[in-house]
Specification:
single chain; about 375 residues; alpha/beta; nine-stranded mixed beta sheet; three-stranded antiparallel beta sheet; about 20% strand
């Protein structure tokens, strides 16, 4: 079925599931910490989790490391030092590897940022979401405008020359002018990367069960269009649906996801995808979601993950689902390199998409057109198995 002659790049995702307070829009695996965080036990569990994964990836170098959550910046520098040292002892980390830490402006101190930088963490992703105090209160954030501004300033001050600001638009009661002001404020802070995405009401969230009043579709479209224009004027390249970066500052970890690379996932609720050239398989796995269950299982010798193997239809669709999010698209050979499958298995769908002016397709490049980017869901549905 698969025919891997080489393997895609390999990344590591580490999930830290605790936060100060669960935001009403958040559908990530995050849990409020009410009785303290068991840092030592959790780091030990993460490294045990990683040990179980090692036989699948012996000899393969890591491409990136991303520590997400939850709120990883709640962890002490000592705990993160033990974690990163344990990862380095087990895996081949290039000297210049991108190591990202997610941070909440409400949990940041200057000394902590300096300590993170000293550990080898060289990229931050700061969850600002908005610079408007009223908007932040309505979406349940624990920080205000002052803390958001301070977090970006601290990132510069302690030597982070690569950091992302997360922004949302379409917030409850948000006006077009407020959305544009958020983007202008972010640009003025000079991050190397800005993630700018629309608030959606995801299942299993408080906002889904108790929907707030959101801007009308026409206003949402104006927010997206005008904010994109502002970002382009400031030389942020729109390289993915919701991602904007200065030159040579794209998020390498997320690019590996979007290019259907491999990744280990360790931590409560983490997911992974590993290709195997010996057995010609692609395996997906997921870890126990609740921190208490994860910690209890990791203390033993049983596997702490469930797994399944992809078939060729799944792999073809998942590749297109991710790669067509990229403005630059992909080279046709990448489909074969990263799935072990010939591009011919999606040739009919490519032809239909091209006829409908949703993508451009030639021997060197496959990428969505402007129409395809605006109607991405319709484009992706063509590749459903």
């Amino acid at each position: 079925m698969f025919n891997f002659t080489s393997l895609p790049p390999l990344s590591l995702y580490v999930h830290i599931p605790w936060c100060v307070r669960k935001c009403p829009y958040c559908d990530f695996n995050s849990h409020e910490h009410k009785n303290g965080i068991p840092e030592k036990a959790y780091v030990n569990a993460l490294l045990s989790d990683l040990d179980q994964e090692l036989p699948e990836i012996w000899g393969r170098p890591l491409h990136t490391v991303f520590i997400g959550g939850g709120t990883p910046s709640l962890f002490s520098a000592e705990a993160l030092d033990e974690l990163i040292s344990g990862i380095r002892a087990r895996l081949n980390l290039p000297a210049n590897i991108e190591i990202t830490l997610e941070a909440n402006p409400g949990t940041i101190e200057s000394d902590k940022f300096r300590e993170f930088r000293a550990l080898g963490i060289n990229r931050l992703s700061i969850g600002v979401q908005s610079f408007n105090d009223d908007a932040l209160q309505r979406i349940g954030r624990i920080h205000g405008r002052k803390e958001a501004l301070r977090a970006a300033e601290l990132a510069h001050d302690v030597g982070f020359d690569n950091f992302n600001l997360d922004l949302m638009f379409g917030l409850p009661q948000q006006s077009l002018e407020q959305a544009i002001e958020d983007v202008n404020t972010a640009i003025a802070l000079e991050p190397t990367h800005i993630s700018h995405y629309q608030l959606t009401l995801e299942p299993n969230t408080l906002f889904h069960h108790q929907p707030p009043v959101l801007p009308q579709d026409e206003t949402l479209w104006s927010m997206q269009e005008q904010c994109q224009h502002k970002l382009a004027e400031a030389d942020y390249q729109h390289y993915e649906v919701s991602a904007y970066a200065k030159a040579n500052k794209r998020c390498l970890h997320n690019l590996n996801y979007w290019q259907f690379g491999d990744y280990l996932g360790i931590g409560a609720g983490a997911h992974g995808k590993i290709s195997n050239a010996q057995h010609q398989t692609i395996r997906r796995n997921s870890k126990l979601r609740h921190p208490d269950e994860y910690l209890a299982k990791a203390a033993g010798t049983e596997r702490i993950s469930t797994e399944h193997k992809l078939n060729s239809n799944d792999a073809g669709f998942e590749f297109m689902l991710n790669a067509l999010r990229l403005s630059d698209g992909f080279a046709p050979h990448q489909f074969n390199d990263h799935t072990g499958l010939p591009i011919s298995i999606v040739e009919e769908q490519l032809r239909i998409a091209e006829e409908n002016e949703l993508l451009e397709w030639n021997v060197q490049l496959i990428r969505p057109t402007e129409k395809g980017r605006n109607y991405l869901n319709e484009l992706l549905q063509l590749f459903l198995p």
